[in-house]
UniProtKB/TrEMBL annotation, chain A:
Gene3D superfamilies: Phosphorylase Kinase, domain 1, Transferase(Phosphotransferase) domain 1. This is non-specific serine/threonine protein kinase. GO terms for biological process: tRNA processing; tRNA threonylcarbamoyladenosine metabolic process. Keywords: ATP-binding, Hydrolase, Kinase, Nucleotide-binding, Nucleus, Phosphoprotein, Serine/threonine-protein kinase, Transferase, tRNA processing. Belongs to the protein kinase superfamily. BUD32 family. It comes from Chrysodeixis includens. Component of the EKC/KEOPS complex composed of at least GON7, TP53RK, TPRKB, OSGEP and LAGE3; the whole complex dimerizes. SMART domains: S_TKc. It catalyses: L-seryl-[protein] + ATP = O-phospho-L-seryl-[protein] + ADP + H(+); L-threonyl-[protein] + ATP = O-phospho-L-threonyl-[protein] + ADP + H(+). Pfam families: Pkinase. Residues 3-236 form the Protein kinase domain.
UniProtKB/TrEMBL annotation, chain B:
GO terms for biological process: tRNA threonylcarbamoyladenosine modification. GO terms for cellular component: cytosol; EKC/KEOPS complex; nucleus. Belongs to the CGI121/TPRKB family. Pfam families: CGI-121. It is found in: Nucleus. NCBIfam families: PRK14886.1-1. This is EKC/KEOPS complex subunit CGI121.
Length: 236, 193
């Protein structure tokens, strides 16, 4: 197989994701294709704005010490973002499906998720599509180690990477943050319905991880959003 | 061609190339070829020739270069922007220096990432099937050619961190630094800091 030939990894409603060699590295290419139902000029503007938002959020996360893929090229003309491919990874979704919550590292990982979300929100970044598929666990290189320990996952030597900032934006309001948490709760309920305490652990870590900041307002808003949502489903 | 530096081992062995090549975007059909030199004696000649456009190459200060990949990301954007008539500076070689820099001030960028009286120089050539200017220029560099593997000896972690304004970084990890630096380069045109 020709290595430079892009391989389709995922096809979504907004974008296609390929992997290929680019600048000598394994690279993920995210291409936002044209939506035929949109006016072409509007389509170009919307796509530009989304690409810009995605790249900006990814960069902002790095400044907040949140691991995200490195960006190699942001190409508005081709509607593509070229970024780092993390070869060794497991999504949090697959991790839970495979290992369950009885896993000794489960609670640590859930806490890390809560802390990471708090960092995200403290920096006014809203992810917009928080699901366990958009969270990757990758091996964390241990101090002094040259290579990845094959037992990285079993040993809990993991690092959390946030991906897919396609619906994200910066300068988020309290309402946005509340909704962000609500989206996650709904996603967890549908994907991991048998692990009820997962969201509770995440939310607790979210609250306590930064005692200096004030998460109360966001939590209050989240509860309002949740109540609204519930009402809506009851009526509908 | 460049005369290979003598090897300690038997003469039948071919010495490995000291330069490094990275292929850029397939549409550009261009590669970068990187050479690292130390104790360069004719810095002024090099500078003059580059500024006058006689020598087609970028002379980069290696102090803020963490990895060849960093130059590849900057050069890739420069070559694509040249193709699209979207360059900020006058030549693709100064565009590489500009892209490396985190600021949008052109003269500051060229001064920071280019060479002035530096004797350690990282040369970047854009090579295509038809054209490789390194073959004429490299023999005219009066200095000691080093392997690209030695680049890290010329890099200053702290200064690079400072130049790219990455003071939030806690751990001293080159990998993380490279991640941040290339992401900054890739987003420079539309992110203000």
């Amino acid at each position: 197989m020709d290595e430079s030939e892009p391989q389709l990894l995922k096809q979504g409603a907004e974008a296609r994701v390929y992997i290929c060699k680019y600048l000598g590295r394994d690279t993920v290419i995210k291409e936002r294709f044209q939506k035929k139902y949109r006016h072409p000029d509007l389509d170009v503007e919307i796509v530009k704005e989304r690409i810009r938002n995605e790249a900006r959020s990814i960069l902002r996360c790095k400044f907040a010490n949140i691991r995200t893929p490195a960006l190699y090229l942001v190409d508005f003309e081709r509607r593509k973002i070229y970024m780092e491919y993390l070869a060794t990874n497991i999504t949090v979704k697959d991790f839970i499906a495979k290992h369950g919550t009885a896993n000794e590292h489960f609670e640590k990982i859930a806490k890390t998720i809560g802390e990471t979300l708090r960092k995200l929100h403290d920096n006014n970044i809203v992810h917009g599509d928080l699901t366990t598929s958009n969270m990757l666990l990758i091996p964390k290189l241990q101090a002094g180690a040259e290579q990845i320990d094959p037992a990285w996952l079993a040993k809990g030597h993991v690092e959390l990477v946030m991906i897919d900032f396609g619906l994200s934006y910066t300068d988020a309001s309290i309402e946005d943050k509340g909704v962000d948490l609500y989206v996650l709760e709904r996603a967890l309920l549908s994907t991991h319905s048998n692990y009820e305490d997962l969201f509770a652990i995440i939310l607790k870590a979210y609250v306590v991880s930064n005692p200096k900041g004030n998460a109360n307002e966001t939590i209050k808003r989240f509860e309002e959003v949740r109540a609204r949502g519930r009402k809506r489903t009851m009526v509908g | 061609m460049v005369s290979p530096t003598p090897q300690v081992s038997s003469s039948s062995e071919v010495s490995p190339p000291k330069y490094q090549i990275v292929e850029l975007d397939p549409d550009t059909k261009t590669k970068i070829k990187l050479y690292l030199f130390k104790n360069v004696q004719n810095v002024e000649t090099i500078r003059d020739n580059i500024i006058q456009g006689v020598w087609e190459c970028s002379a980069i200060k290696p102090r803020y270069i963490v990895d060849a990949f960093q130059v590849a990301v900057a050069a890739n954007k420069a070559v694509l922007d040249e193709k699209r008539d979207a360059m900020v500076t006058r030549s693709v070689y100064s565009e590489i220096l500009y892209n490396l820099s985190p600021t949008k001030n052109i003269s500051q960028s060229l001064m920071k990432f280019g060479i002035s009286k530096d004797t350690n120089i990282l040369f970047c050539f854009l090579v295509t099937e038809e054209r490789d200017t390194s073959t004429e220029i490299i023999p005219k560099i009066e200095g000691e050619m080093c392997s690209m593997k030695e680049l890290f000896n010329f890099t200053s972690f702290e200064e690079t961190k400072h130049v790219y304004k990455l003071n939030h970084m806690k751990e001293k990890c080159m990998e993380r630094l490279l991640d941040l630096v290339v992401t900054k380069i890739a987003t420079k045109s539309f992110v203000t800091h």
